[in-house]
Amino acid sequence: MKFKLVLKEIFFQLMDLKEEWMLMTEVAKPDLLVFYIKAVLVAISPITPHWAHSIWTKKLVPFCKTQNIEIKPFLYHNDPSLEQRWERFEVNEQLVHQRNILQKTVVSMRSSLDNMRKKSKVVLDKGVIIVAKKFPESHIRVINLMKKLGVNEKNMINGNLFEEMKLVFTDKKELNNGIKFAK
Amino acid sequence: MVDNEKMSKSKGNFYTLEDMIELYGADASRVGMADAGDTHEDANFVTDICDKSILRLNAFENWMDELLKRPMRKEDHLYDNIFMNQVKKHMEESYKL
């Protein structure tokens, strides 16, 4: 195990994740909060066992009792720090991608708000993101066409999408919009 | 090495493990050791990492204390799944290391 890299992954990235979550949701959900704290404590316990054990018994266990959440009374049973296995998880790559998109949106919004602040003297402290509930009609037609054609093993669309689009779209303007979206 | 300098008594930067624990406490010293390096290069104990780790551990504890007192929500939020998945991702990444 490379301790330095694990430290970076847990001590910095995992511990900083809480700020991102609180910024997005504002109020915590008990079971998710317990899941997160448990993950941090279990992960950091090989490096800082005293601290992790103290937080687990003095803070996490009493909180779980008030919320009726099941939890082991001690972080370790019979001091088996060497016997404990690292819990494995299944990671959803699509959710990772969604998070990256959201983060990019937040960063670009912050930078554009900063730019606007520099240009105008008006105090800007709020921004609004408007999310369309559905795609425009031409985009839906492109998506349906893509679904119909399907993808091969290399994640590429079967057949010639643009040729098929020429048959589906009669209006030139719509066709151009569709091609722009498909690209 | 300590802070990128070779330990020597004449420079006054010679520390034993006991000195480190007395200065930074057991947990922060262990963080410093873990960060000192796992490769064939000379281990470099950075005292700044120990100081910062004490702050980080304290900040996490304070955040927990404050949050556990606050009212909680029962409803799901769009970001909950993303957050949970991200926690799992970091745990998996650490497993692979």
How would you describe this structure to a colleague?
The complex is a heterodimer of chains A (183) and B (97). Chain A is 63% helix and 0% strand. Chain A has 183 residues and is mainly alpha-helical. Chain A folds into three domains: 3-67, no CATH class; 91-131, no CATH class; 133-183, no CATH class. Chain B has 97 residues and is mostly helical. In chain B, 62% of the residues lie in helices and 0% in strands. Chain B is built from four helices and no strands. In chain B, helix 1 (17-24) crosses helix 2 and helix 2 crosses helix 3. Chain B is elongated, with a radius of gyration of 19 Å. The mean pLDDT of chain B is 86. At the A-B interface, helix 1, helix 2, helix 3 and helix 4 of A face helix 2, helix 3 and helix 4 of B.
Provide keyphrases for this structure:
heterodimer; A: 183 residues; mainly alpha; 3 domains; 7 helices; 63% helix; elongated; B: 97 residues
List the helices and strands and how they pair.
The complex is a heterodimer of chains A (183) and B (97).
Chain A (H helix, E strand, L loop, with lengths): L2 H23 L4 H15 L4 H19 L25 H27 L17 H13 L11 H8 L3 H11 L1
Helix pairs in contact in A: 1-2, 2-3, 5-6, 5-7
Chain B lengths: L16 H8 L1 H10 L11 H23 L8 H19 L1
Helix pairs in contact in B: 1-2, 2-3
Work out the strand percent of chain B: under 5%
Biggest interface between chains: A-B, 52 and 46 residues
Strand content of chain A: under 5%
Radius of gyration of chain A: 25 Å
| Largest sheet entry of chain B | none
Structural class of chain A: mainly alpha
Shape of chain B: elongated
Order of helices and strands of chain B: HHHH
Count of DSSP-assigned helices of chain B = 4
- Note the run of SSEs of chain A as H and E: HHHHHHH
Overall geometry of chain A: elongated
Unreliable segments of 5+ consecutive residues of chain B: none
Class computed from helices, strands and strand pairing of chain B? mainly alpha
Supply the number of structural domains of chain A.
3
Oligomeric grouping of the chains: heterodimer
